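hey can u check if this looks right to u? its 184 residues, i copy pasted from the old doc so theres a chance i mangled smth
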Amino acid sequence: MFRFNFSFSWRPQNRCLNFRKRGLGFLVWALVCSVGMPGAPTLAATEGCHAKLPHVSFPTATLEIANVKLSVEVAKTEDQHRRGLMCRKNLRPNHGMLFEFQSERILSFWMKNTLIPLSIGFFNSRRELIEVLDMQPASDLLLEPPIYRSTKFGLFALEVPLGWFKANKIKLNDRFKIQNGRLF
């Protein structure tokens, strides 16, 4: 019969872990250390914003919500949706990104490789605000960053600097208008 014994003790005086390894337990420990922990982030998952990303361009538009004007980049394609605001170091006041989808559905977003905290507003097909969530940048150490989902079906999502909706007194059911009347 094999016995696994993984015990460790913390030695504050030298700040290192002391592992007692015996029998097959040592072999398993050595294998895990040499191959890597299951579920540990791979190089591709951790290189994030340091990797050379292909160029994705976004058309721009001006929105108005409750008499507040907002300059937005518009994401309509899958490539634009995937890129979003990844790797941006800042987002100017009254600037954001508007995501438009093919049909109304539960919308899901994450903050992988997103460096700035954001608020996201979900809008239905009538362009009415149905929900606002605050999103924090995800740690590079997380294999799967948190998912931010709408609780109702939406057609549009608007990402803006954290707290923008509250600071501008934008409330549920407020509608956005597009300055030139239509999105691309």
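Residues 1-46 have pLDDT under 50 and may be disordered.
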